[in-house]
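Usage

Read records sequentially. Each one opens with the input sequence:
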Amino acid sequence: MGFTSAWSISCHEDSVIADLAPRTAAAIEADRTCPGARRRWAAWQRAPLPAHRTWWTGPPAEDEAIRSFQDLTRPGRHVDDLCAFEVVDDLWQRQPDQELMFLSVHRKAYPVSALFHALGPERAALLPGWCGNFLLTAAEARRALPAVERALGLGPRERARAQGQLWLDPEPRESVLDGPLRAWRAAARAGLGLCGLAFHVD
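and closes with the structure output:
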């Protein structure tokens, strides 16, 4: 069955972050603490997956690890349920400046899954929130920036290796390797908070 998924990162005044917090923070926490989530995260941290082009050709235990990673990094049920079109459309309307947003949309692929596999578990663990979902005030986003720089600030060799592990179609605006860090830096410069949401579009 086909699907379309999106990963949105947008910069907002703290007043908007406060408006979003009651439902959004609770949904992110519910996905983080749902049965199996931490177990899947710990399993991936212990045993990173092989190159994606070799998936499904190994032993059954490796296939199970791949399924576990996919379950971990696809949109969580609670955040996904929250992100009806009118909710995310209203969120995007609150930030009309495209330079203060990152949006990655794909058919039959999950941007966060691809990015996390390309980065590997050590770098992915430096990113705040839970599997691409976060809600941060301006102060929290600024404090998190050094860790995000370490996670996403790839040198030429690291970037070439990461690019080889992405299975996403070419993105018309910018890659998942570039957009999140650009948005984070923009938020820090502007003194804004950040909202990251991964969800199904249909």
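Summary fields computed downstream for this record:
- The chain has a mean pLDDT of 94.
- The beta strands are 4-12, 101-107, 134-136, 193-200.
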